[in-house]
Design goal:
Shape: globular
Distance between the termini: 55 Å
Number of strands: 19
Strand content: 25-35%
Radius of gyration: 24 Å
Number of domains: 4
Structural class: alpha+beta
Number of helices: 18
Largest sheet: 8 strands, antiparallel
Length: about 525
Amino acid sequence: MQRSAVKKIKNSANGDGHVKFPEPGSKQEKQAFKKLQHRLRRHFDVVFSDRLAPCTVVVIPSLSMDQDILSKISGINHYEERLLCMLLLLRMPRTNIIYVTSETIDPVTIDYYLHSLPGVTGYHAMRRLTLLSCHDASSKPLTQKILERPRLMERIREAILPDHEAHMACFNVTSLERTLSVQLQVPVFGCDPDLFELGNKSNGRKIFRECGLEVPFGFEDLHSTRDIVEALTALKNQDPEIRRAVVKINDGFSGDGNAIFSFSGSGKKGDSKNWIRENLRQNLKIVSDDLAYDVFMEKYKQMGGIVEAFVEGKEKESPSVQCRIMPDGKCEVLSTHDQELGGESGQVYIGAHFPASKEYAIDIGKMGKKVAEVLRNKGVLGRFAIDFISIKGKKGWTHYPIEINLRKGGTTHPYVTLQFLTDGNYRPDVGLYYTANGQVRYYFCSDNLKSEQFHGLTPHDLIDIAMMHNVHYDGTLQEGVLFHLIGALSQFGKLGVVCIGSSPERAVEFYNKTVEVLQLETVHPLYNH
């Protein structure tokens, strides 16, 4: 943002010093936002083509989603740290970062990231980094906290240098982020909130069909218990042998918002509707252990959702494709992953292998490109991901797309970390990632490395342990381990890792070594040896 824009904001103030902004959600605000978004084309033409271009990235890692569902995720407050991978942009010597969080991040964590920067010193990078905090640990979305603090917003404005192009990088873009964008006069590289519904579970099924992709048999745009019963009955009538179905809230997150219905005990004949109605509460297993049946149903009523057949298979994988739609309309396939799902129902995201299996990485990449092109034509911008269920049969793999996430996700920060560390790119035509010097790299990542033993380990302790046992990323070899979610470790015993290796096996070896070292150190601390 130019300094003149800051002056315009100040000059528009009333006599009492308050600035007049469009009413949040108003037609005027939406028009102002669209006008700002038009600046992105020129912004990215300049910034993406020149690593020396003066640029400021305002990182707002707010999870602006349903807070009841998010609250069921252990250590959710610390998920704002996942976008610390954006600090690796500081490797470009004229790029500045403004990073805003709910609570102050430990300086040890910041130093840890800056130490990994290739090509610049930590001192040079730190001069171009502005860290701001709301000092607010409440469950409200970070963006809401920022909007409630006009002095903090002024500090963000003042941190953008006069000659810098600026944009906001957000986890997801809702009406809150739109309001913040307009009030800061900084565009967002992300999807317009008015298009966000395109990424819910119901509309995802419609878009997949529009792309000619096969979806599991099911129903969308449901809102009531009666709708769920009707849909489950139709599934049973269509396939009397069906064992399970998935009931999903439109805007769930990381599997929390899903439930599995078991047809066990229903029999194969007779009036299945009455049986389903009578056994719905008993046979519906909510994925999140802390989300009560009545709360789940209330959320379903508010947000709507889908019911679809649970895809069964002896050899089954859960790959995903991450894509990006650029301001100039170019559609890119950024990465493919094989997700590891856990929990009793197998619906909770645990981690992922990058890239996806060579047996189908190219195929799902092509499917992702189709979806990207349809979404682009509907006006979507920025990163998004598509999740699949893939079943291997006698004739090969069948891929069922099951949802679109119009936001960053669990596979975004690991890939960004790899790309910024190695200055490479994923080649969707061959299904492999190549570093700048032509070496192939793989990783295993997780947001969910946790153990009761890890409770009480501080960020300082983690760094000490990593250094003592050589469990860290080696820039010379372009292999090793990079930690994230470091702030969640002490209270929740939970940590994130990206384990980079020259082969899939080596990446997993780094992960296993990390687990082994942490377990060893928490059972037999080094200082007790």
